[in-house]
Amino acid sequence: MPDIPIPEVPGPARQEEAGGWQRLQSLLALVIAVVAITLAAWEGLENRRHNRLTVQPRLGGEYSSGREGDSEYVRIAVENNGLGPAVIGSLRIFLDDTALPARSGIGRSPWSVVIDSVATEGMHVDAHAFGAGYFLPAGREYLLFQARRPRGSAPDDAPIGAIADRIGIDICYCSIYGSHCDRVTLATKPLDVGPCPDPPEPAAPRRDGQ
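and the corresponding structure tokens:
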């Protein structure tokens, strides 16, 4: 009759080795899970950072003066050369280095004060402004001030371009995320503009019925 093999019972050393391997497997699984969560969080932060960079605005100013046909002109404009829209935080107008108060109630607007001060007979003036929260799209130019008059209607020692030396415009803005906040100051000489106001909180998504 053939001998029946008797299975070998693992001794204490082998049981301890098997238990150590199981603990190692559990530890490796935990490490892999932690690494996966960390990578997912890092990827989310990078995507968010990338999204914010892809909508970063950048405003620049333009002064120009010259002659067109029978008239001469001076022009002040702002342009968004960035990647996304600029959300305007504030726009302040200066005349002769002094900040003009914003219009309140039935008071006069700052541009009205400027026009009354710089306009001469026969001059045509256009002035525009935007308030807090205005969106200036990327690639868009916005005319802020323009004055035209017929050539020869003023003395040669009073060039129309000199008007730009009296006017200053300070604009504070942010991206649509309320980040990458900056300012652009349109002036031919330094201005005491002070700090920009705090950026507004990003608008919360609206729900139906609200």
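(Above: one complete record from the training split.) Strands lie at 59-68, 71-80, 86-95, 98-99, 124-127, 135-136, 141-150, 167-174, 182-186.
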